[in-house]
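TICKET #2291
ISSUE: user wants both folds in one file
ATTACHMENT 1:
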Amino acid sequence: MKRANHKASHLWGFSSGECLGGEVSSYRDKQNIYTQGEPASTLFYIQKGGVRLSTRRNNRPAAVTAILGVGDFFGELCLANYPLRMCTAVALTASTIRTIKKAKMIQMLRKKNKTSVSLLAQLLSSIKNYRDHVADLLTSSAEQRLAHVLLRLAHLGKNGRTGVEIPVLSDKVLAEMVGTTRSRINVFMNRFRKRGFISCAGGIEVHPSLRKALGTR
């Protein structure tokens, strides 16, 4: 899960992102970073906050394909010569994000030093996390998918706390992330609250015990 990514980013010296160069921008809660179909010539590194990626096909509702936090890259498909954005990226909360030009990243990867090896490892980890999320959507129940989503969102907060308050999201947004209906989200959230997995006093506070909802997964 994301906690491992936070640790990795500090080990590799990317916590500040300064070694990556590029420009740093601030985004508001729910602000678009880029939209599916736009030209793709840059990738991004999250220094603070979180991002969700969603993909729309034909006239179907958008499906959330990833929930990202501090230390994650996104938009990296441009490195594989994809000319257009394959998804829409939206800030989950107030976020600080570094924009890196494709040519600059390729130059860094070609140096074959400690930094380039670490960068490549983290980019591959990002791809693995994406594949894991897709597999989760295909094999888990809707309730388990909601638990995964809440735990990912909780990892956007500070480590070392018994409970982490996540960004305020409507049942509609959570339903889009999970791939189910708003009414089912409401049922699952009430069930988690009654079991003590989450607290709902103003915001939503996620407790580590929520992992029990994942069963043997």
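ATTACHMENT 2:
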Amino acid sequence: MPVSNYGLLIGRLTDHGAQGGDNPHYLLVVQAGAIPYRVSLNVQSTAPHGDFPARLQYCVVKKLAASKLAKSITNQNEFVFKNVDPDQRSLDYIRDGIVNMNAFTDLEPGIPLKRNAFYKELSAACAEAQRDTEAFVAVFGTGYPDQDDRPAGPGQNPLRASIGFSGVDNVHMNQGSFYRIGNHADPHFKENGTHQDGAVLFFFGDNTVTGFFTKFDYQDNQTNDFGNPMKSGIADLDSLKAIPGRVRNKLLQHRPPTKKLLKEVTTRAATAHDLATTAAKKAGKKPKPAISGTSGGQAAPGWTFGDTTTIVDPNRPFDPDNDAQYRNSRFVKNFAVLGTPEAVPSSRNGVYPVMKLEHVIDAQAIASIKASGGIVFHAVGDTGAVVESQYVHEESVAELMVKDFAPSNPTAKNPAFFFHLGDVVYYYGEGEFYYDQFYHPYKEYPGPIFAIPGNHDGITHPNGASSLLGFISAFCDDAPRYWAEAGGILRSTMTQPGGLLYA
């Protein structure tokens, strides 16, 4: 989702300086009309977080006066937002060709300012612009703050300008950030978008123009039409030339779940735990503690992906899924016409996605498979049923699959697992339909269940849900646990890394 309040500020530089302490920003004060704007620029790399260090990269481009970008800018002496004036100039590092994406220089974390080359060039340009009476600066970025929660009182609020902003932030590249299942490389992947990058351009009285451009090393230099990376960010995967680019380019990122949705998941997990606790007490068993996780719910001990002992099965009336009200909406049509605007998340921790069979079945079963020279497994797809008349057919197939497990057969002759081929839940993969369309019909299935998502598992409609959230919660959890959407059926979540299964 693009950044909000993006625009172009042009005015006179009146003050500048480092913010001091451990703050990795340099502060510019730009007077535009009657308003002094505080512009915050990244000038230092921060400590590592996630699976990548937050390393700043910079590029200083001099001799920009002849560029199309510079020629299109005059001193308008105001901050104009793109959503207010669609004709307002925007910036895109990758598409405008204004900066060489291979010319960025890394800033090592912890470098003092006196040895920071980027800081020296920026502060020198600021000093020159402040001395030059004809100079002005152009800042691409976002307005902040967009709200002030302090109680109203007498006097002027220094945080608020007449248009609602007195500062400019995100003065760096705002696309190409990665998302990974279970571990965000950085918190800005949700802000990916095109034609919304930030930078500072100095226009001097001698008609020279110098631009200061910054990005972070976890931002990809090639992005698609949604501003998402064209790579997975996994070296072993991106280097495989045998994988078509159109397939590899699907390994991108998607929006995080909204606060509202996370609250709903937490509430449902708590409800499921309460049901499980009550049932355990009635059975004279000690209830297990609830823990938090990707899916929420109660912890599952060890590899229990095939555990089908039911604590509580509400066996409620079938809940049909009727999405007619969304089917012809612009949001859903965009999926069909444009492809997936929310890109597919990359694998957990940014490593090549491998899940070995020994991670989910015991050594004796694997030895039996090897001794037989072959493996037996189920492969079924399109199992989701949206109405009860369809559900009876899904249930009958599930019953036949269970019958394939014969106690008298050698282990190698019984199915080792069920590989679901996608479209687990119709129509749009919502978590609330997993009980009816997946957990309940397969509650007697005694083996682990893997899955690959289909188009119906990933698409969403405008209800605040994130694409693939239900699928990731059921099959790509960070640890096996009992998900609230299973309705009390003890088939634990699967811990797929978001990729392949290797025997």
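RESOLUTION: both attachments delivered.
EXTRA DETAIL ON ATTACHMENT 2: Residues 137 and 202 are 5 Å apart (CA to CA).
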